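Exercise 7 asks you to align residues with tokens for two separate proteins.
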Amino acid sequence: MMIEYIAAIALAAVLILGVAGPTLSANGEAGEETALLGTKLTLSQAISTAEQRTGGKAFDAGVDVEHEKPRIVVETNGPNGVQTVVFDAQSGQIIESHAGGEPD
């Protein structure tokens, strides 16, 4: 009976840490999961805008938090090669754009 009790407590601890672990680490800084909450620009809008601007097709896109400000980074590949477009997620404005590199 005691072994079953200890096993049940150990299993409960593993389950709690497995569920709470990612949540706790994301709360340490503005996590990518919550970085776009309340911002003007969605990931889909950023991808569409980057594709229109570069004439390429997006192959990578994600959220980046720099100096506590969320940014969306989209990489496209098209007639002019690989291009990167960086958006300020709060304003929706393009803050950086550059060409070069090889697609992943």
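Second protein for Exercise 7:
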Amino acid sequence: MIGEATKCDICKRDKQETNHWLVAITCPGYEGILFVPVEATEFRLEGYTYQDICGQGCMSKRLSRWLDDLNAPAPTTPKSEAA
């Protein structure tokens, strides 16, 4: 049976047997990111976002992106004018 190859969600590299892959887990509405070994995510829960990460370099890039998003200013809504 031919399965679809797993690719890193950051650099798009194909998964190899010797790579030490991680999974970045986030959940909308919660401030946090969790990195776990890919073996720990055999069963994935609905509502969470899982990203395959090929190693430490891409993990650092993903963490940096998450921190940038966390520190981004919240969108503001225009105030309605009173009549």
